Amino acid sequence: MEKKRQKTPQEQRYQQQVKEKMPRSKTLPQCLRAFVVGGLICCIGQAVRAFGENTLALDPDGVAALTAIVMVFLGATLTGLGVYDKIGAWAGAGSVVPITGFANSIVSPAMEFKREGLILGTAAKMFTIAGPVLVYGIGASVVVGLITCLLAG
């Protein structure tokens, strides 16, 4: 085994300066915030689902549609009011729960470009981010479907 060489006083001072200047890791608090906010969004979705099943007595397709509509509406409305961006800044990845995050990704560019007018600003920019999401989402679902068919057949 090799002996570990002693650091010179200059190297020790340098290591101390690096420790002082290096920002502290924020990974654990960021993960906890993402977990809490993502969980709350999912709990809201589950509450909407339970309301559709128990109170409105909807069939499974109706419950799924109601949940999707309400969650997209909430995501889009909170984005329009400027609240969703604040939630995203605090929660990080926890705010990117698929359905509300998708609504946010469609509304955000539209809000940003509304000064350019209804057609060239809002309508055109609405799909700036959503377009690639749709393309990759549909593409991934086709690939998964083909793999499933090949494995089942």
Architecture blueprint of SSEs:
Elements: H1 9-21, H2 27-55, H3 60-80, H4 83-91, H5 98-112, H6 118-125, H7 127-152
Helix pairs in contact: 2-3, 3-5, 5-6, 5-7
Task: Please mark out the parts with pLDDT under 50 across 5 or more consecutive residues, or reply none.
Answer: none
Termini separation: 56 Å
**Beta-strand content bin:** under 5%
Please provide the ordered H/E string of secondary-structure elements.
Answer: HHHHHHH
Describe the global form: extended
Structural class: mainly alpha
Gyration radius (Cα, Å) is: 24 Å
Tally of contiguous helical segments: 7
Number of strands: 0
Helix content: over 70%
Mean pLDDT: 83
The description of the largest β-sheet is: none
Quickly list its features:
single chain; 153 residues; mainly alpha
Characterize the structure shown.
The protein is mostly helical. The protein has a domain at 29-127. Helix content is 79%, strand content 0%. The chain contains seven helices and no strands. It has helices at residues 9-21, 27-55, 60-80, 83-91, 98-112, 118-125, 127-152. The longest helix is centred in the N-terminal third of the chain and has 29 residues, at 27-55.
